């Protein structure tokens, strides 16, 4: 019989897996449709960019390839359900380290780069008027960062909660 702590760990693992599967599936099918939910102006000719542009095309297909990894790692998170002691490493790598690294990249990009100041340097300030109020931040980066942080926090808390039981070999 498994303890309540182990059951809580399993719930966090299942939630992480479901979120990974959903995110991976959506980004694999059409990254542009997912991003367009959060974007205000999506170019009508984005498909031409994906097909022809030397920077956008590789990024598009790399994003789809990495979404396949995210999708399959969601299914990998099912393994700890069957033997939580044996597969704690999967939870550490897939549920703690990966979301933490993703969170840091997304939040760093969201908060510590200031694209509006770069735009001001490149464009004549008189032509665009009052630039101080323009916000070039991407809400999707913030949202995905928060999702990955919640996954990280949930899994690390549950792993620490079950740490003493795992050392004793209890489930």
Please describe the topology of this protein:
Layout: H1 4-29, H2 31-38, H3 46-52, H4 56-76, H5 79-82, H6 88-111, H7 115-122, H8 125-128, H9 139-161, H10 163-168
Helix pairs in contact: 1-2, 1-4, 1-9, 3-4, 6-9
Word description of this protein:
The structure is a single chain. This protein is mainly alpha-helical and 171 residues long. Helices cover 77% and strands 0% of the residues. It is built from ten helices and no strands. It has helices at 4-29, 31-38, 46-52, 56-76, 79-82, 88-111, 115-122, 125-128, 139-161, 163-168. The protein starts with a helix and ends with a helix. Mean pLDDT is 80; it is low at 117-134.
Keywords:
171 residues; mainly alpha; 10 helices; 0% strand
Give the helix/strand class: mainly alpha
Shape: elongated
Into which percentage range does the β-strand content fall? under 5%
For the CA atoms, what is the radius of gyration?
Answer: 20 Å
Brief synopsis:
By secondary structure, this protein is mainly alpha-helical.
């Amino acid at each position: 019989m498994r303890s309540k702590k182990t059951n809580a760990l399993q719930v966090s693992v299942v939630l992480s897996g479901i979120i990974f599967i959903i995110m991976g599936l959506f980004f694999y099918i059409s990254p542009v449709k997912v991003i367009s939910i959060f974007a205000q102006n999506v170019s009508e000719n984005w498909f031409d960019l994906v097909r022809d542009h030397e920077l956008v095309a590789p990024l598009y297909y790399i994003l789809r390839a990495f979404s396949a990894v995210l999708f399959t790692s969601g299914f990998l998170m099912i393994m700890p359900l069957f033997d939580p002691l044996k597969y704690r490493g999967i939870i550490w790598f897939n549920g703690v380290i990966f979301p933490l690294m993703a969170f840091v990249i997304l939040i760093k990009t969201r908060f510590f780069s200031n694209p509006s100041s770069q735009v001001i340097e490149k464009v004549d300030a008189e032509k665009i008027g009052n630039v101080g109020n323009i916000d070039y931040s991407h809400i999707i980066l913030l949202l995905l960062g928060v999702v990955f942080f919640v996954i990280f926090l949930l899994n690390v808390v549950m792993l620490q909660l079950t740490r003493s039981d795992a050392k004793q070999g209890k489930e």
